[in-house]
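Hi U.,

Before I forget, here's the chain from the pilot set. I'm dumping it here mostly so it's searchable later in email.
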Amino acid sequence: MEMHQVRYFLAVARTLNFTRAAEECNVAQPSLTRAIRQLEDELGGDLFRRERPHAQLTELGQRMQPLLQQCYDSALGARSLASSIKSGDVGSLRMAVSATNGREVLGQSGHTRGLHS
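Structure:
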């Protein structure tokens, strides 16, 4: 399964039209159709009932839609996070608290049980 197949599937599921989905994805309609056929072969069944001019999700398509949407959203999130890390917008913050400071902070709140050496 490839991300462009998932993206094409989601576009057709949203528009219920192969031609409009191809335009939305900036791809030729035969290429979009071929990619969806490959996805259907991999998943073992039809994702759409093709009834011109519209398409309808099959039961398999309906069940796959939320899973494939989650997959696609996760991939976009991973790409965005990687870009942010690369540009320095996101990084790690590590903090350490010494035992003495920890006792003082906890001591002020009254939760010092078990902290004494």
